Amino acid sequence: MTEKPAKPYPDFPLFPHRNGQWAKTIRGKHHYFGVIADWESALNLYLDDRDDLYAGRTPNRSGDVSVSELTNRFLGVKKSAIESGELSQRTWKEYSDVCDVVIKFFGRSTPAKSLEPDDFAKLRAHLSLGVVSTTLANRVRRTRVVFRFLSEISEDSPNWGKSFREPSKKLKRKRKAEKGDLSYSPTEIRAFIEASANPQMKAMIYLGISCGFGNMDCATLLWSDLDLTNRWHYHARPKTFVPRRARIWPEVIPLLEQTAARYKRLEIESPLVFLTRYRKPWVRQSEGGKESWIDSVAQEANKIGLEFYRLRRTFRTVADEVQDTLAARLIMGHTAPDRDMDATYVQSISDGRLDAISDHVRNWTGLTGQ
């Protein structure tokens, strides 16, 4: 009787089959991974095929670009864009999250070119679970960017069909109507300012309603972006690096000076205007483990019932009453649509136009003279 071959080590995941190969029973079926004499190659093949086999998929042994290779190479290129200043770390993280979902949904070794419209339709349904239409639109958009990269690294192109697209404009309008008005009233804004005991948060609230600052804008604002003497900021929007310029309301200056004095007293040297009590940026990546973000702006604002980003929406809503779209875009850091010829040919916007918007919003809040 032939002696049964021993496993190379106790926890070896395969068993020796009588046909002379290492095998594994998965989903009620035997799968074979190579001859007994070469257990290392058999183990490597098993590890490559394992996820697909347990998911009921046929492993990719054709040499085609796999989903894993596609996403890894895509993220590598985008990582280089961070180093060159063309992409923010946060945007890279959003792409990384989408890639994680794609790998888990389709399988690491699945050939990217083998995916068909039905596969992408199922992925879209998965991406839509528990999220609003705006989030779904962002997920679909980023996923399409990832798969377009397939044509850059191979001769293949993605075949996602017609259904793998963002929610329709009609649905977006419907969802927006259901959520109602997302802007704050003057009374609410004054109450938030009064309720905030943190000078930095109070200053950020002012910047949110006076300059259209969002959470990341506040977290990345530099002292070098400020002209406190003449009350201007020149802080480019972190998300797009689009230049911005806006008048700083007089109420903000003492708060910023108070912050600067505190830093001097505590011997804190930082290019950032706002730091938490632990001397960390207000929006930052978590330390250790899987990459994630800590948004202290949102956390601190929530303590007083404020959804911080709604200040930016409120600013733009009120600013539009001045009917100077180009000046409002400059303050917000918005890029103009390609069809907007005025934005192409208008080379500068005067301080007076920016002041007109700033004064209008300040009068609307009722903070004038307070």
Describe it:
With 370 residues, this protein is mostly helical. The chain has three domains: 1-59, no CATH class; 67-179; 186-365, hpI Integrase, Chain A (Orthogonal Bundle). 49% of the residues lie in helices and 7% in strands. The protein has 16 helices and eight strands. It has helices at residues 39-54, 67-83, 89-106, 117-127, 133-148, 150-153, 169-179, 186-195, 199-211, 215-220, 252-265, 296-302, 309-319, 325-332, 341-345, 351-365, and strands spanning 15-16, 21-26, 29-35, 226-227, 232-233, 246-247, 283-285, 293-295. A three-stranded antiparallel β-sheet has the order 1-2-3. A hairpin with a 2-residue loop joins strand 2 and strand 3. Helix 3 packs across helix 5 and helix 9 packs parallel to helix 13 (309-319). The radius of gyration is 27 Å and the shape is elongated. 27% of the residues are buried. The model has no long low-confidence stretch (mean pLDDT 87).
| N-to-C CA distance | 98 Å
Count of helices? 16
Cα-atom radius of gyration: 27 Å
What is the CATH topology assignment of the largest domain?
A: hpI Integrase, Chain A
**Estimated share of beta-strand residues:** 5-15%
**Order of adjacent strands in the largest pleated sheet:** 1-2-3
Looking at the overall shape, the CATH architecture of the largest domain is Orthogonal Bundle
Q: Kindly provide the name of the CATH class of the largest domain.
A: Mainly Alpha
Helix content estimate: 40-55%
Note the run of SSEs as H and E. Answer: EEEHHHHHHHHHHEEEHEEHHHHH
**Total E-strand runs:** 8
What does the average pLDDT come to? 87
List segments where confidence is low: pLDDT < 50 over at least 5 consecutive residues. Answer: none
Helix-strand category: mainly alpha
- Mind summarizing the main beta sheet? 3 strands, antiparallel
The total number of structural domains is 3
Shape: elongated
